Input
Amino acid sequence: MSDRRTAWLLLPRPVRRLPADLAAVVVLTLLTVGSVFIPGINETPLRVLFGLGFVLFLPGYAFIAALFPESSREVSADDGQAQTVADSESEGKPNPVPGTDAAETERSQPPGEHLQSQGIDGIERVALSFGLSIAIVPLIGLVLNFTPWGIRLAPVVLSVTVFTLACVSIAARRRHELPAEDQFRVPYRAWIAAGKAELFEPNSRTDAALNIALVLSVLLAVGSVGYAVAVPPQGEQFTEFYLLSESDDGELVADGYPDELAVGEQSQLVVGIGNNEYE
Output
């Protein structure tokens, strides 16, 4: 425990203060870069797994986090503001005569609650993350198209990485400028506690059976997707054999074969064999 604490304290202060969701974005981004450029790993299904999230979710989430650092909540106006609004609304209106229906109606009406919504909730944040990622990545590719690097794997990955990390840095700074109660936080601990209680402390045997069925279904779905990615379907198995000749410009083509050869005359042909037996 002390070693882990010491290792944690050795990290730079900005890294230690990074919120959990933004830290997850940074880690997943770096894992994606590693799965793309590290030899051996870039030929595994991890490249596809991390690449999908890297393109479809992470840039948009980081951008939304930079735009909306606050949590979603409704704020009511204070009494002074409410009184000011009430005074401004009643200004210029004659007071109702006591004892009349208008006076009784005004007295029976409850004071209005002035609520203002701040931030966006989790569902909106996730939905916007997918939508903005689909818009941001093509725009980055469009910009790269007019640069000397062009739209290639390395420039695209590095550009999206720089954009995502820059948005994470801005989002972290903007969150730290807000009061602690106003900062957006992912309640992952509450989710974990609720999940444990639901799985290991069911209210009835029926709930326990449903939980087991749900876990098995998720494992089956994940296993099916992993198998489909790791073992792609194979096409027709065959062995190809071809004969090529050399054209005037030195290119090998399947044409221009010699029709006649005299005794002792030589002609060069290229024989090719292709193995498509998946062995």
Remarks:
- The chain has three domains: 2-70+120-185, 187-233, 238-276.
- DSSP finds eleven helices and five strands in the chain.
- The radius of gyration is 33 Å.
- Confidence is low (pLDDT under 50) at residues 79-91, 111-115.
